[in-house]
Write a structure and sequence with these properties.
Layout: H1 14-21, H2 31-38, E1 43-48, H3 54-67, E2 76-80, H4 83-98, H5 101-106, E3 114-117, H6 118-129, E4 140-141, H7 144-157, H8 170-186, H9 191-209, H10 220-257, E5 259-260, H11 262-275, H12 277-285, E6 289-292, H13 300-310, E7 323-328, H14 344-351, E8 356-360, E9 362-363, H15 368-378, E10 392-393, E11 401-405, H16 410-431, E12 439-443, H17 446-458, E13 463-465, H18 475-488, H19 493-502, H20 507-527, H21 538-543, H22 555-573, H23 579-590, H24 592-598, H25 603-623, H26 629-643, E14 667-671, H27 672-675, E15 683-686, H28 733-764, E16 770-774, H29 781-785, H30 787-790, E17 797-798, H31 804-811, E18 817-819, E19 839-840, H32 842-849, H33 851-854, H34 873-885, H35 889-912, E20 919-920, H36 921-929, H37 931-939, H38 948-963, H39 985-997, E21 1005-1016, E22 1019-1030, E23 1040-1046, H40 1053-1074, E24 1081-1087, E25 1093-1096, H41 1102-1118
Parallel strand pairs: 1-7, 1-8, 2-3, 2-6, 4-5, 6-7, 9-10, 11-16, 11-18, 12-14, 12-15, 13-14, 15-16, 20-22, 23-24
Antiparallel strand pairs: 17-19, 21-22, 22-23, 24-25
Helix pairs in contact: 1-3, 2-3, 3-4, 6-11, 7-8, 7-10, 7-26, 8-10, 9-10, 10-28, 11-12, 11-13, 15-28, 15-31, 16-17, 18-19, 18-22, 23-25, 24-25, 36-37, 36-40, 37-41, 38-39
Length: 1120
């Protein structure tokens, strides 16, 4: 039973158990591993170096403790970070237990160990006991992209002028608010507490700024730091204080909508355990053996929860739990930017009493030279008091090889990497023909990998991006997103261009199509004075391509555009079908399924991507049952931007990659963060090892007092491990200046350099046989050209310095660093074999690059002319002479002829009119009311400013559409022209109150803002229907009723006939689109400006509608 003390099975010795687990005598654990496996201490801290076999050791520890009877499998808990890591550990544990005879005989009667992620464990507790603290256990978990979306919505809805956010852009406000929100959750703070801190800091700066005494001459650096603090910090602190109101609204929105983040779940689980200690004791008593993997990557929030959950209960001497073992490596703590504390292992030792510390330092991964290089870099890493041993070689390890590349230019550096990869592959094919090479290029930033890819492609070397390319960014998924986006938002020309490219529309035809779209837009604007919502859209040109003499499209383009138009039309008809079905239909219509099968390579990857995207649509629909296709696409855009978007600094785009695996036979390009936990047998290359790129930080740090993107250090739970600075702790401005100078120029760069050094250690410990370290002396030839200008001092000219990590390796006498020239092939260009210096002189630069590069030529001298012209005298003489001698009669006659041609063309155009390929409902009403005026406008259209009524209708329709959760695509008809200002807010609210009082506001619409087309009397007529309701159950109404909102008052009787025809067209359009008898469709105007008065359409037949349209067209043409 849990909590009972057990006697160990003395018949099961360590040696006997290990022989069962590892029949191969050469695979027995090391002495270090044995100490970990046998340890029975209540609290155990294991520092496991890179490649030291920690996963195997944890599995052996579980098997051993189970075998001797200290714990049953069901009393074992293993926690790690990713589902992939949890699955691998679970598989290893299951396999190890399976080798024990005792376990095999009793397998069916035993429960299994629980191996899961830290967050999943917290979720189980929060969902099981959340009601005890008022937390909804059924709340839906949102992604990082949804966090961005939600915060964006709140900021977009924020009342103008309510808060002073300075001059920050919207995206910066969203990012800064999310930083605040995440830090408040992770550090278990309140918004009031953060607000109080920010107020105190701003007040302290204001008080210190009142001091009149000046800095001394010997305090210039301190004075500069104080000026920077006084000038920049108050605005940044004030913005963050204002954003706390936004964060509070965000928290409230999540509660109202039943949404949670992982941090919420961890915080809720911690709150449950803290408020109800009996639950904590119950949870702790369930597990005798606890293993905490990758503990160095836990956040403060996670660490507090883990200790609350697993170190409670009865006195440990009574046996309520046997052992909690944290395993990690402070040298690999590379996730500080996402809330993890680099000192998590030190914290673990501080939280628990009598922690025993053990180490795993034998690397079973890398060969000797590579371990020496990694140790050289790790020597300067601070570990917070946790002792870390140097990595040691495994028995019979190879010598290994560490190669340096340092040509003059960056592009040469990447070419040298590519050539070395080519040579290694060739050598392996010759010596080990059955072996598929394992090679990777690891970059601190993704842009490094993007520079590497074209080099590999030019050399014919297969490669793949891993971890940086999201599924939703793959080409086939981008095509699907474009198709859905064009259907949901026809104005998205950028998406349509991708589809046109897919259909093979060339540059000339694209220009012709763009020209035709402009012509259509011109005709549309000139042909209607009021329908200002219709803008130039490429989709119209695709739907109504030019015909006959108007067309400059090629025949092939016309056919392909027609095919694309048919695909989009079919997708439009299916727009309201279930999202997974719509995606599947798009796949079929675009031929992506066939293209996937026909691919020579990566066919399965494409098919898997498509299936995953369909599953993603299904999952989104399940989580958002009332959402539209546009909502889904907006969510994808947010995910794209937030979760896989910008990556200027290391890590921000490189969360641990669940599916990252080593793929032999292809060069893998990935960020170092994504590569953590992986290993490559043959070669790993690391580019950009120069100062300012991948080296220690010396400048450009982000100090929390003046950076909205950095949460204040003094509020963080791990503040004791961070660089210290706080204005309220300074006695005067001189102390503040001195402290801030030290903080920003010394303490903070040293702190951020530690993170960069740990990242280098992770990269350098990935390969077994060869590590390729690449740098360069100059970015580009142009960079060389500016050196002398930048360097004002005499003496050597500084070039790009080697990375401090590479310098550490070069300084270590035990590392045999190999120059690239000693392994290069005979076909290598000579410029790749040099070892460029870190400083040089002008003569050497000119010898290497030439004088034109090193000393760019000055501006060309102003030319001298033999004939001196003095203005205005000479010019006036020359002009007079030309006027006297230039014949003019022929030119004037040519002008007359050209004018006559232009006038004739104008008359012809006036006679023909500027006919569009369609009419709008607005056109039909205007033809009915005044055919002659309509015709005049067609002959000589005059663009008009959008009227007050149009603006009123636009605003009101948008509000009503949002009431029904739809996007407004308005069709404002015949507003009275006026120069009045836009609708006052009070008037708008009044109209909305009238709308809310109508019976329509309470009904569920069949459609909102529905664009339709109908052909009547041989003419295409476009309609935009405001709303359609099912009204069969309402006495006196048809089965379906089309409703058109009007912000004005009911017109007089002379206009009602034309209005009735408009409603009749809406009825006919809906009837044909949905296959309903025309008599089953009613229509009405709702005049909100007249208290919601309704004007009902008559039940005009289809023949009557056609006759009225024909008569209007005839009247218009007769007035010509």
């Amino acid at each position: 039973m849990p909590g009972a003390t057990r006697r160990a099975n003395v018949l099961m010795t360590y040696e006997k158990i290990m022989r069962m687990i590892h029949p191969d005598r050469n695979a027995q654990p090391t002495a270090e591993q044995r100490l970990v496996i046998e340890a029975e201490d209540p609290a155990l801290l294991v520092v496991a170096g890179a490649g030291s076999g920690k996963t195997a050791t944890m599995a052996d520890r579980i098997a051993y403790q189970v075998a001797i009877g200290r714990a049953d499998p069901g009393e074992v808990l293993g926690l790690t970070f990713t589902r992939k890591a949890a699955g691998e550990l679970a598989q290893r544990v299951e396999s190890t237990l399976g080798r024990l005879n005792r376990v095999v005989q009793q397998r069916e009667s035993l429960t299994r160990p629980l191996i899961t992620t830290y967050n999943s464990f917290a979720v189980d507790i929060a969902s099981s006991y959340g009601l005890l603290i008022g937390v909804d256990p059924a709340a839906r978990l949102i992604t990082d992209g949804e966090r961005w979306q939600l915060m964006s919505q709140i900021i977009d809805e924020w009342p103008s002028g309510a808060n002073d956010f300075g001059d920050l852009e919207r995206s910066s406000l969203v990012e800064s608010a999310l930083v605040l929100e995440a830090a408040i959750l992770d550090n278990q703070l309140t918004t009031d507490g953060v607000r109080e801190f920010l107020d105190a800091e701003m007040t302290a700066i204001d008080v210190l700024a009142q001091e009149k005494q000046r800095f001394g001459k010997d305090q210039s650096a301190d004075s500069k730091a104080w000026s920077e603090l006084k000038g920049k910090a108050p605005a940044s602190l004030r913005v963050r204080r204002e954003l706390l109101d936004v964060v509070e609204a965000y928290f409230q929105r999540k509660r109202d909508e039943g949404l949670v983040e992982f941090a919420d779940q961890v915080a809720s689980a911690s709150a449950v355990l803290n408020r109800h200690p009996d639950i904590g004791r119950e949870v702790a008593s369930q597990y005798r053996l606890v293993l905490l993997d990758e503990y160095q990557d836990t956040s403060v929030n996670q660490a507090a929860f883990i200790c609350s959950a697993l170190t409670r209960g009865e006195d440990t001497q009574a046996g309520s739990w046997r052992s909690v073992c944290a395993v990690g490596d402070p040298n690999q703590a590379i996730y500080g930017w996402r809330g993890a504390s680099a000192n998590a292992l030190a914290d673990f030792a501080a939280r628990l009493p009598h922690v025993r510390r053990l180490s795993l330092s034998v690397s079973f991964r890398s060969d000797d030279a590579i371990l020496d290089a990694a140790n050289a870099v790790a020597a300067s890493i601070t570990t917070g008091g946790v002792g870390v041993r140097k990595l040691r070689s495994r028995p019979h390890a190879g010598p290994g090889r560490v190669i340096e590349i340092r040509p003059w230019l960056r592009e040469e550096s990447y070419l040298a990497i590519g050539l070395r990869i080519r040579d290694v592959i060739a050598e392996l094919r010759r010596t080990r023909p059955d072996h598929r090479p394992e090679i990777a290029v690891l970059g601190r930033k993704r842009i490094y990998l993007e520079r590497m890819a074209p080099v590999l492609q030019s050399l014919g070397i297969p490669y793949e991006f891993v971890g940086g390319e999201s599924m939703i960014r793959r080409p086939e998924i981008l095509t699907l997103r474009a198709a859905l986006g064009v259907v949901a938002s026809p104005g998205r020309n950028d998406l349509l261009i991708r589809l046109l490219t897919l259909y093979g529309i060339g540059a000339d035809d694209l220009r012709a199509l763009d020209g035709w779209s402009r012509e259509l837009a011109k005709r549309q604007v000139l042909g209607t004075k009021l329908d200002h919502r219709e803008e130039r859209s490429l989709i119209e040109a695709v739907t109504y391509p030019p015909q006959g003499e108007e067309s400059s499209l090629s025949e092939a383009a016309r056919q392909r555009i027609a095919a694309l138009s048919r695909v989009l039309a079919e997708l439009r008809r299916a727009l309201h079908s279930p999202l997974p079905d719509l995606i599947a239909r798009a796949v079929r219509l675009l031929g992506l399924d066939v293209a996937a099968v026909a691919r020579r390579s990566a066919a399965q990857r494409v098919r898997t991507s498509i299936d995953s995207f369909i599953a993603l649509g299904s999952s989104y629909t399940a989580d958002h049952p009332d959402s539209s296709v546009a909502d889904f696409l907006a969510w994808l855009d947010a995910v794209d931007l937030r979760e896989h978007g910008g990556e200027e600094e290391a890590g921000q785009e490189a969360l641990p990659t669940e599916g990252a695996e080593v793929h032999p036979g292809v060069v893998q390009l990935m960020t170092i963060h994504a590569a953590k936990g992986l290993q490559w047998e043959d070669l790993v290359a690391v580019p950009e090892l120069v100062d300012g790129q991948f080296s220690e930080i010396t400048r450009g740090v982000h100090a929390w007092p003046q950076s909205n993107a950095v949460f204040p250090y003094p509020l963080r739970a791990d503040y004791r491990y961070l660089p210290r600075f706080q204005v309220t702790g300074c006695a005067d401005k001189f102390a503040a200046g001195a402290d801030y100078r030290a903080f920003k120029s010394e303490l903070l760069p040293a702190h951020e350099s530690q993170e960069m050094r740990r990242l280098a250690y992770v990269a350098f410990t990935r390969p077994r046989a060869e590590l390729l370290l690449a740098g360069f002396a100059a970015d580009t030839p142009e960079w060389i050209g500016g050196l002398k200008k930048r360097d004002k001092q005499d003496g050597p000219i500084p070039l790009r310095q080697r990375s401090s990590f590479l310098s550490d390796i070069r300084a270590a006498t035990e590392v045999p660093l190999v120059p690239i020239s000693s392994v290069a092939g005979q076909d290598w260009p000579a410029n790749l074999l040099v070892e460029a210096p870190e400083a040089t002189d002008i003569e050497e630069l000119m010898e290497v690059f030439g004088a034109e590069i090193v000393v760019p030529p000055m501006l060309a001298p102003v030319p001298t002319f033999e004939d001196d012209l003095c203005w205005p005298k000479n010019i006036s003489r020359s002009l007079g002479e030309r006027l006297r001698t230039e014949p003019t009669d022929d030119r004037v006659q040519a002008w007359y002829r050209q004018a006559e041609i232009l006038l004739a063309e104008q008359r012809q155009a006036g006679a023909m009119g500027r006919e569009r390929p369609y009419l709008t409902a607005t056109d039909v009403v205007r033809m009915q009311q005044d055919p002659e005026q309509f015709r005049r406008e067609q002959r000589r259209p005059i663009p008009r400013q959008p009227s007050h009524a149009a603006r009123t209708g636009t605003t009101l329709h948008a509000r009503i559409a949002s009431h029904f959760s739809a996007v407004a695509t308005l069709d404002i008809d015949l507003p009275e022209e006026t120069d009045e200002p836009a609708l006052p807010r009070e008037r708008e609210h009044e109209l909305l109150r009238v709308f809310a009082s109508t019976p329509w506001a309470a009904l569920e619409p069949l459609a909102v803002e529905q664009p339709l087309e109908v052909v009547v009397a041989g003419r295409v007529i476009r309609c935009t229907i405001d709303a359609v309701f099912e009204t069969g159950g309402i006495p006196g109404r048809a089965k379906v009723t089309v409703v058109d909102w009007k912000s004005g008052r009911r017109p007089g009787p002379e206009q009602l006939a034309a209005r009735e025809l408009q409603l009749a067209l809406y009825r006919l359009a809906w009837s044909r689109a949905h296959g309903l008898p025309l008599e089953d469709v009613g229509a009405c105007f709702v005049y909100l400006g007249s208290g919601g008065h309704t004007f009902e359409a008559g039940m005009m037949s289809e023949e009557e509608i056609a006759k009225r349209i024909e008569d209007s067209l005839f009247s218009t043409e007769s007035s010509a």
